[in-house]
Amino acid sequence: MPTTASSAPGGPNRFAQQLFSPLPARYDTLAEVLSFGQNGRWRRAMVDAVVAASPQLILDVATGPAGVALQMAARTGARVVGVDVTEAMLRQGRANARRAGARIGFTLGRGEQLPFADATFDAVSFTYLLRYVDDPAATISELSRVVKPGGVVANLEFAVPESGFWRFWWWGYTRLVLPVAGWLTGGREWFDVGRFLGPNISSHYRRYPVPWTVEAWRDAGLVDVGVRTMSLGGGLVMWGTRTGG
Ligand SMILES: C[S@@+](CC[C@H](N)C(=O)[O-])C[C@H]1O[C@@H](n2cnc3c(N)ncnc32)[C@H](O)[C@@H]1O
Fold first, then answer.
1. How far is the CA of 165 from the centre of ligand 1 (A)?
2. Which residues make Cβ contacts (< 8 Å) with residue 90, sequence separation at least 6?
3. pLDDT, tens digit, for every residue of 146-161?
């Protein structure tokens, strides 16, 4: 399994589809278990940034089984559209939204090339996406393109702790514990994810450190860009406002 999605045969979209297709049924549960509940805290912090803007129409990119989209719908009353490149994830998202009685529409699509006109949405969120695209700066611009002037963009990603002490423990967890815990809780597919994640997160931030990402947001027409690291540096929540009008 390659360290970066870009170096995989078939390119990053194909890689993401292969990695994520077997995961939807147990994704929400295992994402919580394997992050010791931190994924839920990070999600809530990202959704807080969107809720504060009182949006009517929200786009959630890399929506997966719709955990973020469901929370947005419940907390804002907005109409939510979820986009994902993996059909199996969207199927699970649709089932989860039906069960919750939530107003969420789902579209198969790529964050790199969204099937929406400029300035369509009041808010756009994206979660764990940039490590699966070839050109993160171009993707951030594309996400910003579909937000109305004054609208909000919010993002959640894994991160690498800055402190050497916590980075040591993070390294041990992601390289040793995560693959084994993935195998024990989810079998072969979750072992593959556990083995891929740590080296992929490290190599992403070596190429695109957080200050680089903040600059890319600004270059994409986003202002008041905020960054919050959580859980000793293992989670990163970002938000910003679309300029123009
Ligand atoms: C780790 S899951 C996150 C799911 C969800 N946002 C959550 O937090 O529960 C990442 C998702 O990104 C999707 N994905 C990967 N590359 C993508 C791309 N280029 N465009 C849209 N979705 C993509 C995958 O199919 C997968 O469902």
1. 30
2. 63, 82, 84, 106, 107, 108
3. 999 999 999 999 999 9
